[in-house]
Amino acid sequence: MRISSLEEYGLRCMLALARKGPQGQLSISEIAELEGLSVPYASKLLAILRKAELVSAVRGRGGGFCISRPAEDITLFAVLTALGGPLIDPDHCKRFSGQHEECVHTEDCCVHHVLDSLASFIGEILERTTLSDLVKAGAEQRHGHRGLILADSLRGSMTDENTVPSPDNGNEI
């Protein structure tokens, strides 16, 4: 999985707004300054996030943008898919069909199965991780603590029945 610049900077804009909370707001120029972006690029990102209903625009003097709901209700999955689309392109097999209209491995494709499984695994972690989690982890790191948000998310994923068993096969030492 590759994170595009649109996804990276869009997520950073969302985090800047999440730090302000649902009642706080920032102007486009303030967001651009905070994140080291041009105003037109920040505006483009915010337009995408607004269309996805992740941010709201506040009109008038002193207006700007704010997150549309509490940070604990906005997942990384929602933000990243709004900015970049699905984790695995549903037309992946059509794009890599060689000289044919359809991939020759459509019926027995092990690659597509692996990519779907990977997208599901990553998607589960992103669904469990909220903007609030990242804001808290950032605050902990600024205060000398190491946030374990990804480890916590992974730990939750490792409890399902599709997990690869540990090397000791569950035997105690």
Task: Characterise this structure.
- It is a single chain.
- This protein is mainly α.
- The chain has a domain at 1-85: Arc Repressor Mutant, subunit A (Orthogonal Bundle).
- 52% of the residues lie in helices and 5% in strands.
- A hairpin with a 5-residue loop joins strand 1 (55-58) and strand 2.
- The longest helix has 19 residues, at 110-128.
- The two termini are 37 Å apart.
- Mean pLDDT is 81; it is low at 160-173.
Kindly report how far apart the N and C termini lie: 37 Å
CATH architecture of one domain: Orthogonal Bundle
Instruction: Give the DSSP E fraction (strand runs of 2 or more residues).
Output: under 5%
Shape: elongated
Low-pLDDT stretches are 160-173
Q: Total number of β-strand segments?
A: 2
Rounded average pLDDT: 81
Helical content (DSSP H or I, runs of 4+): 40-55%
Strand order of the largest sheet: 1-2
Q: What is the H/E order?
A: HHHEEHHHHH
CATH class of one domain: Mainly Alpha
In brief, what are we looking at here?
By secondary structure, the protein is mainly alpha-helical. The protein has a domain at 1-85: Arc Repressor Mutant, subunit A (Orthogonal Bundle).
